[in-house]
Amino acid sequence: MERQGPPLGPYRATKLWNEVTTSFRVGMPLRKHRQHLKKYSNCFTAVEAVDWLYDLLRSNSNFGPEVTRQQTIQLLRKFLKNHVIEDIKGRWGSESLDDNNQLFRFPATSPLKTFPQRHTEIKKTNTEYFSKNKDGIFKLRNLSQKTSKKRGLHFSQENTEKINHERITNEDLEIAPDNQEISQEDVEEVWRYVIMIYLQTILSLPSIEELLNPNQVIPQYIMYNMANTSKHGVVILQDKSDDLPHWVLSAMKCLANWPRSNDTNNLTYVGFERDVFKTIADYFLNLPEPLLTFEYYELFVNILGLLQPHLERVAINALQLCCLLLPPPNRRKLQLLMRMISRMSQNVDMPKLHEEIGTRSLMINTFSRCVLCCAEEVDLDELLASRLVSFLMDHHQEILQVPTYLQAAVEKHLDYIKKGNVKNHGDGLVVPLPTYSYCKQISAKEFDEQKISTSQAAIAELLENIVRSKSLPLKEKRRKLKQFQKEYPLIYQKRFPTTESEAALFDDKPTIKQPMLNLRNPKLHSLRY
């Protein structure tokens, strides 16, 4: 579970469900329990199941260490509803499971889910699409031979800066007649072609059609998202009716810049920031569909399987391209939301927005479902969405910026076609593609050291911000550190391995108080003179 996951492809959420349920069924310890003066064998308590499954999910790279105990309980309730488990009397179908000593067991039936019969229809649609466009400038190439050699590869750090020019041969393109004038439709088809080629190469798939129907790629969206941005890289909408309402933008700016908001001059009150946050959350939770849209659900869920220490660069570049596919209003909302929750999570001056959980966990739990979810209910939706939002928070500046190499690739395509350099099927076409390097094999110990996610690094950075803050009163700093220690004990212990190191932060020096009574035996003097 820790190093492997289901292969990339359609219905990855269903495959993950089958993997988790199988691992739970195989690994969950069973023993005898007594309840109401009666013994039951081969069963387990709810609290034992929560403990075991909680550790399993946190060690799985598809879900990560930010999985909460409450999310684990929710998943066990879905297990009970789908007859993965049943109570000791054989009852199932409801979600009546709590973190207590109620007894459960495994049924005799298989908990695995079957895959819908939809994939063949998608492939048929893709075939019809490419047959219809056969006489265009090009057709989407099949990279099965090239990508099969590139499995296990990952991006180097310089891949977006140093572009390697590869040649695409006659099997990759069908060229139009000489000196054909380039129409707007042709330009749009080039954008569609280039971005699908890149995604297929990055994800090392035999065919991108398994995840992405070409009809789902809207070139106008990509071109708009690339060209219409502010100096901070945020999409600028021409039609303001598609933008966030002014009151939502003001509320988001207020919390993102707290307490230095320049947009709010009104007097605040106790609990003001909680009311503002609730206003923002209500708006996003009531959107008609998630920001990443229903149709791209499979695409983003598959990228979640790259979220491992040695494939982090691949995930960032794949998400960068996938977010370009979004309608401009969705991309703008996603950019502004990620900027806000990222700033709030790192702001040590942000008042407590929830009595029990920290700001970062609250951001993830609140907004995950409005960022990613399936049109049809999927049992792992919440966990998968939380994992993706956590990664987006930590890398949103890079993921949501415009990739300049994509523009260069499109311009190279169009330039060669316009100049008539490609005259027949035997000629090639120069296209820039990312630089790849082979993965270095590492030991198990090195892997364990690298598997600490960037989210944990961000949490550790938050702790440092609290420690180094000079604006926090000493009493408030103690309170925040105590809260941090309760929520993230391992990270806290790593920062303060001994009580002495913790005491040094506050310059706690033991003070020696003078005894109030002199305990020495006084010399007895005679009362007689």
UniProtKB/TrEMBL annotation:
InterPro entries with a match to the protein in the record: DEP_dom, Rho_GTPase_activation_prot, RhoGAP_dom, WH-like_DNA-bd_sf, WH_DNA-bd_sf
Pfam family, one: DEP
Coiled coil region boundaries: none
GO biological process: intracellular signal transduction
DEP domain span: 24-108
Gene Ontology terms for molecular function: GTPase activator activity
Domain of life: Eukaryota
PROSITE patterns, sorted: DEP (PS50186), RHOGAP (PS50238)
All copies of domain Rho-GAP, residue ranges: 206-400
Annotated keywords: GTPase activation
Gene3D superfamilies xref list: Rho GTPase activation protein (1.10.555.10), Winged helix-like DNA-binding domain superfamily/Winged helix DNA-binding domain (1.10.10.10)
Any one annotated GO CC term: transcription repressor complex
Protein name (record): DEP domain-containing protein 1B
Organism per entry: Mus caroli
Lineage of source species: Eukaryota, Metazoa, Chordata, Craniata, Vertebrata
